[in-house]
Amino acid sequence: MTHHSLELLSPAGNPAALRAAIEAGADAVYCGFADRTNARNYPGLNFDVDEMVEGVAFAHSKGAKVLVAINTFPPAGEMKSWKDAIDNAAMAGADAVILADIGVLDYAANKHPNLRRHLSVQASAANPLSINYYRDQFGVKRVVLPRILSVDEVAHVAKETGMEIEVFGYGSVGPMSEGRCFLSSYMTGLSPTSEGACAPASHVTYKEEGDFVLSCLGDVVLNRVAKGEGAAYPTPCKARYVACGKAGYIFEEPIALNALDILPELKKAGVTALKIEGRQRSKAYVAEVVSAFRKALDAVETGETRSTDDLSDLSEGGRQTFGAYKKGWR
Amino acid sequence: MKPSNLPAPLVRGAMTVAPPFVLARAIDALLRKMERAHPRLFKNLARLKPYVIHVEPSDLPHRFALKFGGDEKAFVRLLDPRDETPGDACIKGNIDVLLNLLQGRIDGDALFFTRGLVIAGDTAAVVALRNTLDREEIDLFADVTSMFGPLQKPAERALTAIGRAREAARHRAAEFIDSLREDKTADAAAPAWVNERDALKAELKTLQTRIAKLEVREKLAKGASQDPAHS
Ligand code: SF4
């Protein structure tokens, strides 16, 4: 494998997506077990233990890494699934585990000291004091930064912590500090941080109403989308609420983060790895987004200037943003 | 090697003219073929909760019911036009979209964002089906042509030739339409101003949202200054 100074990290919701990602040029993939120990716990998604063992073997044969996300928060008295997930990731030969809960971090650090630990975005650690705490207490090697920091703030964190920094390069954006959002729990009674799914499919319904489609979460109507209008994920933060008599996207517009055009800036800020969001997406999405980023990252390495691929068709609402990287609202 | 595509117009044509009993038997035969080619897919489908999903190709006169889960073997049934029994969920899209989706060649979420695919009913059923299908590498072209047994190779060649002819025709039609668009006297600069107009529209939308947010803030601030209990 050629050395890329920015590691390209792809989602893999299933073994076929893992293979597609690596064939499209990902340096590493992240995935989870098929239970609530990870933040994409949707029906039919994720890996059983045998699939994880095979996935790791396939990735290693191609010189790629596998990072296992065990990034939800265990409820009181129900640690077993999380402990099993750590033990199984270690047994499968995973290159790292991505963790959020301090109890889970402690268990992994003590039971498998040689298994690399990354701090999940779900831990919401966004300043050097907090990140250094995880580094010093649990030997965390890399932090995944929440999507709320500007490029300058990312550079500050990288400088002050000396840690490996992973940031999001493409995919869904949420306006909240991750791991601290209660909107979906409020509407469904199921917590994204311990059940592993924001807007769980079991609570989502769509209804056609003439030329419009209504999307509902539980008994709350989240949106009414007209023909030809880009649709959004049915998450409460992307809902169109009526405030002061006007309907609008109060928290977040249906839009996808796309950092393809600011890769040199992110690299200069000290970023180690670039993460593509979307374990819930298909292998077709994975192949297309990974190959666009592979080409762009290779061009950054060789100093070549080239126009980047258009990913708007794959983007939520058909629109894209630099998100907080280029904060204009502060 | 990139897998070949089943030419959608051919599939559409065949499925439109075939009498229902012939279509039903062809579906049975294809299902049996797929079961042999993808045993893991059928095992994974059986493991799911039991669901019935209605599939309604928008460009075909037929509807289908796909039943899976509950430890039973998945099967597809041609729905009687008078059958009004609802499924747990319903998926609508044109046959090209549905075939590509089945083979994992396009992203379901992207189709949903652009409304190329419409789903209704129990979303958990659709998500479970979509995720289970996406785990497999399905190549309908191979599955269909292998049903021809010893005639597989000629069938592959014939379908590929039809597909190529269709691509060429589509290409010629696109060129013809482009040549009409290239009417210089009309508006040679159209793409540039269209882009600018779209960019301005997007900017306007963002500004409207910002104004709405600021108005809410203003109202809240006014409310707070009038109501000391909220200060
Ligand atoms: S509502 Fe939005 S911000 Fe909150 S957990 Fe869901 S996706 Fe994240």
Automatic annotation (TrEMBL), chain A:
Protein name: U32 family peptidase
Pfam families, per database record: Peptidase_U32 (PF01136)
PANTHER family: PEPTIDASE U32 FAMILY, UBIQUINONE BIOSYNTHESIS PROTEIN UBIU
InterPro entries in the cross-refs: Peptidase_U32, RNA/ubiquinone_mod_enzymes
Species this chain originates from: Rhodomicrobium udaipurense
